[in-house]
Design goal:
Structural class: alpha/beta
Oligomer: single chain
Order of helices and strands: HEEEHHHEHEHEHEHEEEHHHEEEHEEEH
Length: about 450
């Protein structure tokens, strides 16, 4: 049976982000809480919440029950219809998102949210250029992958969406301007951003699109004042501020949304992942009352067959209730502080730990060959021939019964928000054993 499952998967389905030969996927069977199990009964601690999206943990039957109730009433309604669950979810999002973010257009996931957020900004402003960070990922559809600076776009960027301009991140650990502090790096990054706005003709820039908190590009921490000043630059030049909260939303960072750490309200907020904790696919684009009012008299020419799908909306509503009733936002903040203290202890043990960047339960350990030179254990966008340490660490983590992402010289720590200290300790012990491999490459 197990062999047949693997064979069917490999023979009849395509897997993401890599060559299809030589794959050895986990044969997943069952999941509950912070763990999932393969069909041989092996337990894996889910230390990245799958794709940083299973915020409430696995197997919560409240979602199952909410979905079943909705499907007994009405499984699907075309997007031009009003449904009770659609209205209640929209109202709830207006209540929990910052400032005057008021109305939501529902999508099927994060990439679609980004695509439609860009379209709305272009329609609303009549402008066309979008400014984004190089070290960012916004999804894999053509517009979204162009918006991201992640190198996964390279094989398809000959057909990239036009009018996307990238800028440097305020990446203090590897500051492009060799600054002496995270604050100085932020100031120089902001000056760089404003220069680019001017070089590109500010009247042509529709939006600046940044993540609420950096995710798969290395959890790069924003300087304290950075997003506030980005907001000010947007206001100064009449540019829309789009914030991608796909990964950083719904408690992941120890606040409901990443921007809540910065006291900023964007014009457009893109949501997905933690909106349903991955139990069903749903995303959203939330806009301010000003943008919503504009489309009262101007056509909003976007649409999706499954927009505001009532079954998915039911899952999202129940998921948000669970996050609130179980105090998972506060839990993420508390456990994030615990993890930060424990990783500080690991730094004394492992000379390869160069930096740990973390916000709530969205964190990344950066590994180096030498702390003084900061030479990475594995270079950014490494060739397969340069990935020996990465492959060995990933294999060790899987062998020891844990699932998380090891990318180049980064190990991600983003467990479910309801993880216990005992489970964190278990995960960090496995991480420590993997980092011992990186220590072998220190010079």
């Amino acid at each position: 049976m197990n062999d047949e499952i693997i064979k069917n998967n490999l023979d009849y389905t395509l897997f993401s982000w890599g060559k299809q030969g030589g794959l050895n996927p986990i044969n997943a069977s069952y999941a509950e809480g912070s763990y999932f199990y393969d069909r041989d009964g092996k337990q894996y601690l889910d230390f990245s919440s799958q794709l940083m999206n299973v915020n409430i943990g696995h197997g919560n039957q409240r979602i199952t029950e909410a979905v079943a109730r909705q499907m007994k009433e009405m499984s699907y309604a075309y997007p031009g219809m009003a449904t009770d669950v659609r209205g209640r979810l929209g109202k709830k999002l207006a209540e929990i998102t910052p400032g005057n973010l008021t109305k939501t257009f529902f999508t099927l996931g994060g990439a679609e949210a980004i695509e439609n957020g860009i379209k709305l900004a272009r329609m609303y402003t009549g402008r066309h250029k979008i400014i984004t960070h190089y070290r960012a990922y916004h999804g894999a559809t053509y517009g979204a992958i162009t918006a991201g600076g992640d190198p996964r776009r390279f094989p398809v960027d000959s057909q990239a969406m036009p009018n996307v301009v990238h800028v440097e991140n305020p990446y203090a650990y590897r500051c492009p301007w060799n600054s002496s502090s995270i604050e100085e790096c932020g100031e120089l990054a902001l000056a760089h951003l404003e220069r680019v706005i001017k070089f590109e003709n500010s009247d042509s820039v529709a939006a600046i699109l940044f993540e609420g908190e950096s995710g798969s590009s290395g959890c790069i921490k924003y300087p304290p004042m950075y997003l506030k000043h980005v907001r000010a630059l947007c206001d100064k030049y009449g540019i829309m501020m789009i914030v991608d909260e796909v990964m950083s939303g719904f408690g992941r960072t120890g606040k409901m949304f990443g921007v809540d750490h910065h006291d900023v309200t964007p014009d457009i907020m893109c949501l997905a992942k933690g909106l349903t904790s991955g139990y069903l696919p749903l995303g959203g684009v939330v806009v301010t009352d000003e943008i919503a009012e504009y489309f009262n008299d101007n056509p909003m020419t976007i649409g999706l067959t499954y927009s505001a799908h009532p079954t998915l909306c039911a899952a999202a509503l129940e998921n948000i209730k669970i996050i609130e009733e179980d105090n998972l936002v506060e839990r993420a903040a508390e456990m994030g502080q615990y993890i930060e203290a424990e990783v500080e202890k690991l730094k004394a043990k492992h000379p390869s730990i160069g930096d740990f960047r973390n916000t709530g339960l969205l964190g990344c350990i950066e590994l180096v060959k030498n702390r003084k030179t900061k030479e990475p254990t594995v270079p950014w966008n490494a060739k397969p021939s340069e990935m020996e340490a990465t492959v060995r660490m990933a294999a060790k983590i899987r062998e020891l019964g844990m699932f998380t992402f090891v990318r180049w010289n980064w190990i991600f720590i983003a467990p479910p928000l309801n993880i216990s200290k005992t489970e964190v300790d278990q995960g960090l012990e496995i991480v420590s054993q993997a980092i011992a491999i990186a220590d072998e490459y220190c010079i």
